[in-house]
Amino acid sequence: MPGPWAGPEAGLGERATLVQFSSAFCAPCRATRRVLAEVAALVPGVAHVEIDAEARLDLVRRLGIVKTPTVLVLDAAGRIVRRATGQPRKADVIAALGEAL
Questions:
Q1: Model's pTM, two decimal places?
Q2: How is residue 87 annotated by DSSP?
């Protein structure tokens, strides 16, 4: 079931999805993209979806996103199980996925 943040074309992960809200001039967003892509490649069934916060102000407002990067961890059904702001450490992302899997 796709959530409002990712249309069917974005593709939710089979087991979990890491949704990253980013903005164009956000240096920590680039580092976060690398970390989340690495974790998604390591953990079977996990997808990484990046959303341009400026292009999706409707979602930003609805979900209360106040800074970038913000990462949402979704379970297989698309429900938010964890939320964090700032640049995450790989170990913390893997630990957060444990709640979704």
A1: 0.89
A2: P
Say how far apart CA 2 and CA 64 lie, in whole Å: 19
Residue 66 banded pLDDT, cuts 50, 70, 90: very high
Backbone angles phi, psi at 12, to 5 degrees: -75, 150
Q: How many Cβ atoms are within 10 Å of 39's Cβ, its own excluded?
A: 21
Give yes or no for a contact between 88 and 82, defined as CB atoms under 8 angstroms apart: no
d(CA 32, CA 57): 20
Residue pair 60/53 in contact by the 8 Å Cβ criterion? yes
Q: Cα–Cα distances in Å, from 50 out to 12, 67, 98?
A: 12, 14, 20
99: which 2 tokens? 């709640």
What pLDDT, on a 0 to 100 scale, did the predictor assign at position 2?
41
